């Protein structure tokens, strides 16, 4: 595995490190991705994140 060399004692094992190799899995023409942990909950529409991120330069 691409991340097996990374010391990791987290309960999720190597699966918690998968975001490090996510770019190799997604289409190369994809321009934007929001990666979230599975324990995140939203009190509002998640689409509002895109509005905030569009303000970044």
From TrEMBL:
Compartment(s): Membrane
GO CC annotation: membrane
Membrane disposition: Single-pass type II membrane protein
Keyword Transmembrane helix: yes
Protein name: Uncharacterized protein
Keywords linked to the UniProt accession: Glycoprotein, Membrane, Signal-anchor, Transmembrane, Transmembrane helix
Highest taxon above the source species: Eukaryota
């Amino acid at each position: 595995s691409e991340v097996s060399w990374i010391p990791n004692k987290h309960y999720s094992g190597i699966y918690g490190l998968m975001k490090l190799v996510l770019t190799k899995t997604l289409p190369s023409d994809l321009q934007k991705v929001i990666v979230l942990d599975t324990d995140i909950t939203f009190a509002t529409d998640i689409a509002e994140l895109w509005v905030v991120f569009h303000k970044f330069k």
